[in-house]
Amino acid sequence: MYNYILSLKRKYEDLNLLIREELSRPMPNSVVLFKLKLKRLKLKEKIHKMA
Question: Rounded to whole angstroms, how far apart are CA atoms 37 and 4?
């Protein structure tokens, strides 16, 4: 189970990177940002439920 939580945390960090990349664009796509942030939130909730 510990490895699973670690993999979720890695996915969370990957989403953070994608969000930062999108924000660094001259005109960030708000729909893409919304979807990425929603995925990140759901993942964070899942991590906290399991930890």
Answer: 21
Query: Residue 47 has what DSSP assignment?
Result: H
Q: Phi/psi of residue 22, each to 5°?
A: -65, -40
Number of H helices, E strands in the chain: 2, 0
As a whole number of angstroms, the distance between CA 30 and CA 36 comes to 10
Alpha-carbon span 51 to 35, nearest angstrom: 24
Q: What is the pTM of this model?
A: 0.90
Q: Model confidence over 34-48: pLDDT tens digits?
A: 999 999 999 999 999
Domain ranges of the chain: 2-50
